[in-house]
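Technical note accompanying the year-one report. For the benefit of new consortium partners, we illustrate the data format agreed upon in the data management plan: each record pairs a sequence with a structure-token string. No post-processing was applied to the example shown here.
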Amino acid sequence: MTLRLLLAAVAAFALPLPALAQVAPSDPATLRDAALKDDIAWDIVEGLTTEVGQRLAATDAEARAREWAVTKLKALGFQNVHIETFRMPVWVRGEERAEIVSPFPQKLVIAALGNSGSTGPKGVEAEIVYFPTLADLEAAPDSAVKGKIVFISHAMMPTQDGSSYGPFGQARRKGPAIAAQKGAVAVLIRSVGTDHHRNPHTGGTNWPKGVTPIAAAALPLPDAEQLERVLRRGKPVRMRLLITPQFKGEGESGNVIAEVPGSDPSAGIVLIGGHLDSWDLGTGAIDDGTGVAITAAAAKRIMDSGQPRRTIRVVWFGAEEPGGFGGEAYAKAHAGERHVAAAESDFGADRVWKFDVNLPDSAKAIGDRLTAALAPLGIARGRELAGDGTDVGPMMKLGVAAIDLAQDGTRYFDLHHTPDDTLDKIDLVQLRQNVAAWTAMLATVANAPEEIGPVTPRPGL
């Protein structure tokens, strides 16, 4: 080898590694495949759940999470990182005890539903009246309910797409208010979940204007089934409940916002993210630590590969669990900006199995390219109109194009809103597949040459 060739070879190997590894931002396949070895998402969710833990909305814990998020997103290299605060009602958990007084005395496990009223410090004791479904409660005369503790059951089963949650979840969302209007002193529901661990599933309930909140709590499935067996013995069943949460007026929550600035400001903003808050029984790993981690990890991969055409805005929304306050606040603050696409991750971290879009006709080719980019990950194109997501939904209602990456929900409601929502439940291989899917989607959408105009929102959004 001549001296010139030797020096050339040495110079080639002396190139900085980032220059050798640089990937064109228009190459979704290469970025996608690299993301299958991603460690960024794990690092984010591990840090959030370890260093902050549970993050009940509008509490000091959620405020710590926002500060943690700002530090983390800046360290990852995102630009324009900041917090946008808003005010909202504050609810905090108190004591929670339940026991059957007669005919077969025994203790049961419960967790108060978000926005539950209180029994007062002395608790309440009353006869149980049982309704196998919410429809049975709705049809019952007030006289059958007044002065009693209502128990509402249901028959929710696991589904891949999570479609059972909507109808069966009405027992939690609407049931307590209906019982209160009929004169109940308290409400118990069978947890809106699919596991058979002795872990109750919390979650928010709603009180229409003029309805005074009463104590409302969820039984884990084994305890709900135990109570049903006791009731089938045909004897009157009396229970004593102590449920003492508090409404503490207004407090502060907020959205954490970060960006990957685009090269063409006129091309619009691609909005992505998940929610930073969580319920307080576990550490919010799958709901929704993984969601904020997946979307931020994918955005960082795009950022590190080169500047995208469109700005990618990552939002870690606050206060989703008690009623989507963060999404509403974001839409109110940013409705005047040109958003061209929106997507969120809020269904755990098991593998993405299909995707749907709501794109204008002018951008139809983007959907076709997504089909090609996602197919190697085992992700098929669905036939539904996209538009899913509590946090990005308010922007979609304004006509922003939508992309849904649907995760496998078969085991999601085993963990959802329970003490079992912890880091060890995350499957790292499936988490990486999520990052790969989001990376391919962002690389395709953020760099698409087509104009992405407004769309007609999905009906019912």
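Partners are asked to follow this layout when depositing records. The two ends are 69 Å apart (CA to CA).
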